């Protein structure tokens, strides 16, 4: 699994030893053959979290929550080389849209630890975000709101308050606040142990990711033609739907909540294109049909809405856990319905959709033994 690594120049001042165990996990989450398929749920959130914690931990000695441009370039290069040496994909910067600028302060006017702590209510921020309940945080956004408020205070240091009504300043302010959020994340990572920081940061990332369908929907004119109003051939319609869905299945593993959002989003798009018939029901489309298919026996693999990591088994290889409830029908939305909210009190989130009557809930471990060879171990609850 190990690949040759270009010689590191030794110009990066970050303390990689402080996140050694996290980098090992990252290399497994971003394992070469499957990094792209695990990118939105597992690989990129873990990669970005590791970088935040790396800079945060290093700030204990440097008192800086950001790197300058030159140093950021050297450190990002070394970071990727170290991961590749442990089996990670060598195109992670492209897969995760990661650039040296992501390690700098960007447009945020504060990067010094002392200035940070004199600007924001750091004690309150740590109380709110030092430990979070992922179920409540995803709905109430208590920690996320505290981070946003702290970022706004940092961003304001760049302006003359009397000019805050200027439209250009307001537009610029939004970008600045987002850049300052990175600074807040790094400060939190400096105050928490790496494991605690990972729990918080990966949790916040999953809250955000689970609200959006990560799939790209190709043009659906063939479905419109085969399944639109006046449809007279159900077999032709379903064959067309299945071919379309097969393209979605080549994109990414998705979480159970993302699958719900994808089903709702696609359904609304089809209805807007005059497909009024419930083609999900007609063609037996399930939630798992929106995720990467792993083997004919297991079919679609839905990842948990909670943060998860791949595992390394010395005998079986790289593996990850899927939550799988067989054949849960994809919900067909009404024209006026937005994708279902995961924060309704009747829904236990993060959770799987309710199992259909008489079915057994399953977890499966998928083990990557070769380039695309998978072994499957099914665990029944």
UniProtKB/TrEMBL annotation:
Protein name: SPARK domain-containing protein
GO cellular component: plasma membrane
Domain called At1g61900-like C-terminal: residue spans: 211-284
Domain of life: Eukaryota
InterPro entries: At1g61900-like, At1g61900_C, SPARK
Signal peptide: none
Pfam families per the UniProt record, alphabetical: At1g61900, SPARK
Species per Swiss-Prot/TrEMBL record: Solanum commersonii
SPARK domain sequence ranges: 9-157
């Amino acid at each position: 699994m190990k690949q040759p690594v270009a010689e590191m120049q030794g110009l990066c001042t970050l303390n990689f030893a402080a996140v050694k165990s996290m980098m090992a996990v990252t290399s497994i989450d971003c394992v070469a053959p499957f990094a792209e398929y695990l990118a939105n749920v597992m690989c990129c959130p873990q990669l970005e979290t590791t970088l935040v914690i790396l800079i945060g931990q290093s700030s204990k000695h440097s008192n800086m929550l950001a790197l300058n441009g030159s140093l950021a370039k050297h450190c990002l290069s070394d970071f990727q080389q170290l991961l590749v040496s442990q089996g990670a994909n060598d195109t992670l910067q492209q897969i995760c849209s990661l650039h040296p600028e992501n390690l700098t302060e960007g447009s945020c006017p504060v990067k010094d630890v002392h200035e940070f702590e004199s600007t924001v209510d750091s004690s309150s921020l740590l109380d709110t975000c030092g430990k979070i309940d992922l179920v409540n945080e995803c709905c109430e956004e208590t920690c996320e709101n505290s981070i946003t408020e702290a970022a706004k205070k940092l961003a304001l240091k760049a302006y003359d308050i009397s000019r805050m009504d200027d439209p250009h300043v307001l537009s610029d302010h939004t970008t600045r606040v987002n850049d300052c959020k990175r600074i807040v994340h790094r400060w939190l990572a400096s105050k928490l142990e790496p494991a605690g920081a990972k729990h918080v940061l990966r949790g916040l990332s999953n809250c955000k990711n689970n609200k959006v369908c990560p799939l790209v929907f190709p043009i659906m004119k063939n479905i419109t033609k085969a399944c639109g109003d006046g449809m007279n051939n159900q077999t032709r319609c379903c064959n067309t739907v299945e071919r379309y869905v097969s393209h979605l299945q080549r994109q990414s593993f998705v979480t159970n909540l993302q699958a719900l959002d994808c089903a709702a989003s696609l359904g609304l798009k089809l209805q807007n294109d005059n497909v009024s018939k419930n083609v999900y029901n007609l063609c037996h489309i399930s939630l798992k049909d929106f995720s990467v298919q792993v083997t004919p026996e297991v079919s679609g693999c839905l990842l948990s809405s909670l943060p998860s990591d791949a595992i390394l088994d010395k005998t079986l290889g790289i593996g990850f856990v899927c939550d799988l409830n067989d054949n849960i029908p994809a919900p067909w939305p009404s024209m006026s319905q937005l994708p279902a909210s995961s924060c309704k009190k009747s829904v236990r989130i993060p959770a799987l959709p309710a199992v259909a009557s008489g079915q057994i809930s399953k977890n499966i471990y998928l083990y990557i033994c070769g380039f695309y060879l998978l072994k499957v171990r099914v665990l029944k609850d």
